[in-house]
Amino acid sequence: MRKIKNTKKQNRFDKLLEMPKEISSTDPKVTIMGFNEMLIENYKGILEYQEFFVRISTHIGIVNVNGFNLVLNEMSSEDVMITGKIESVDFESTE
């Protein structure tokens, strides 16, 4: 119950300041550029990494990326860039 109250307070505060949802939210943002690049923002951690498969944990679930020659580039605490031949992406909800 406490988490819901804090979230409602934060939402009101963000609306008051006219903050974009992307800035104040922990929801992941997935951007795919062609078949060779993918950017995942607001991720929690990397669960599994292989040349053909990447599993990334987010605050609302897991992002699975399948392909060939996958490489994790430009990693920071907030986002990760995946490059290589991306064949499919699927999401597992943990909520």
> In angstroms, what separates the terminal alpha carbons?
16 Å
Percentage of residues in DSSP E strands: over 45%
List the total number of helices: 2
- The CATH topology label is Immunoglobulin-like
Provide the domain count. 1
CATH architectural name: Sandwich
What integer value in Å does the Rg equal?
15 Å
| Number of DSSP E strands | 6
Structural class: alpha+beta
CATH class: Mainly Beta
How are the elements arranged and paired?
Elements: H1 2-16, H2 21-24, E1 29-33, E2 37-41, E3 43-50, E4 53-58, E5 61-73, E6 79-93
Antiparallel strand pairs: 1-2, 2-6, 3-4, 4-5, 5-6
Give the gist of this structure.
Strand 5 and strand 6 form a beta hairpin. The chain has helices at residues 2-16, 21-24, and strands spanning 29-33, 37-41, 43-50, 53-58, 61-73, 79-93. It is 20% helix and 55% strand.
